[in-house]
Amino acid sequence: MVFQYTDAFVTIATINLEELVCFYTNFFKQEPVKIIPNIYAEFQLSGVRLSIFKPKKSNESEFINSLKSKMSLCLEVSNLEDAIAHLSALGYPPPGEITTASHGREISAYDPDGNRIILHQSKMDS
């Protein structure tokens, strides 16, 4: 039997649903395509869906400490400085400096829950 899937998306769990939905609405400059008040919101991005959900009370403890998360939301941008300025205008400036790697320039930032967002500009766009 061959494993098949029909779609893939990234989800972020949060007990601060409204704050995170507001942050990503302002960050992406778009409203969620799906929303269930106090439970779920979904953004359709180029090539990926980002879903944000509020865990059930019985499961909240697994999600409260996002510092244990090893996942990052990586966004390739056409102009890294513009993306940094946009995040800074929202009140979430990246805490570090731009680094250069073999694949291009990047910087890490964090959303209101501490989830890592990696902004990346490829060498071809530099």
UniProtKB/TrEMBL annotation:
It comes from the Bacteria. PROSITE patterns: VOC. Residues 6-122 form the VOC domain. Pfam families: Glyoxalase. This is VOC family protein. It comes from Plectonema radiosum NIES-515. Gene3D superfamilies: 2,3-Dihydroxybiphenyl 1,2-Dioxygenase, domain 1 (3.10.180.10).
